[in-house]
């Protein structure tokens, strides 16, 4: 035993050593494997960044092609998975369905559970990237009552996302390239964020040697919450509510500052960034560009800007270093791209997938011990049982 240090929320505890992502919250710096996210978002694309995050180096042209081919080998999802999907009510939240379907993949892909040699690990990585995208979009098709679409191996991963989501049997479908570019960038910006709540969950579950799909399913559940990935949906719902009730952003700012009101300004604040979230900066710029190019004039964006300016000037937010985070602007782009609000967090999950995989793989390769925090017991001392 020995003295137990209490650290609720692990604010000052490191859970592992990691080579994947560097984050400096004071300076607002984020890098994957040493490359700045600004540069990656501008010059790379999502599957290349996924490879970098998972395997540690940027792939050669041939290696990347091989990786993309290997992913294509696994893009079919078992028909039985559709039966499981069918059992959910159409009103179910897509994140709940996604978590369940991801866990169900374990049953259909038993080798990915152990992934204890290089070949099985590599296949598990490719399988996860391939199948997760398909089932993620199926949660939307299900909620709409539309027939399910299949992955098209002749087009790219992000194009496939749009096809899987929106293609109808009644006609051809070609996604707008502006939308593809914007989504690609958004996925890159979400790809990893070191030991956040969902990633720590993936590592924790995996530390018991539970399989990759089971660990990622737990990560999806952790991401769902409004203090984490669910914030992107919550931000948009908040902005819509402000708009619907007359556009008074300052009223909501006052509510957020009121300690007797549980309301928080969604999309503001971060456990680690005590400066601008570098992802928010890029996304804000991209939101402006995408809305201008698509000719979208969204009053919600104006409210977001008003809210941001007021909050940044406010003593409450300044003294607590509360800045807009990645979720503040991402919802506005998703909305402009025609993504339904309850799918926002699913998009976050698709983007975060390479990070979860990389962190799980690193944890297994480093032979990390099972995660098992201690506690300080504050309950009753020994009591005698008295029959009533
Ligand atoms: N609105 C109003 N007050 C806030 C907010 C907010 N959004 N965020 C933090 N505070 C206050 C909080 O009340 C506390 O005040 P005091 O010192 O007077 O008690 C102080 O700022 C520090 O906050 P904390 O809750 O101790 O900080 P934390 O590191 O535990 O929480 C957070 C971080 C992200 C959960 C929190 O800032 C929050 O709830 N933000 C809103 C939800 C959100 O946007 N989440 C997305 C996070 S970024 C991407 C992701 O992870 O998905």
UniProtKB/TrEMBL annotation:
<protein>
    <recommendedName>
        <fullName>Citrate synthase</fullName>
    </recommendedName>
</protein>
<keyword id="KW-0012">Acyltransferase</keyword>
<dbReference type="InterPro" id="IPR002020">
    <property type="entry name" value="Citrate_synthase"/>
</dbReference>
<dbReference type="GO" id="GO:0036440">
    <property type="term" value="F:citrate synthase activity"/>
</dbReference>
<dbReference type="InterPro" id="IPR024176">
    <property type="entry name" value="Citrate_synthase_bac-typ"/>
</dbReference>
<dbReference type="InterPro" id="IPR019810">
    <property type="entry name" value="Citrate_synthase_AS"/>
</dbReference>
<dbReference type="Pfam" id="PF00285">
    <property type="entry name" value="Citrate_synt"/>
</dbReference>
<keyword id="KW-0808">Transferase</keyword>
<dbReference type="InterPro" id="IPR010953">
    <property type="entry name" value="Citrate_synthase_typ-I"/>
</dbReference>
<comment type="similarity">
    <text>Belongs to the citrate synthase family.</text>
</comment>
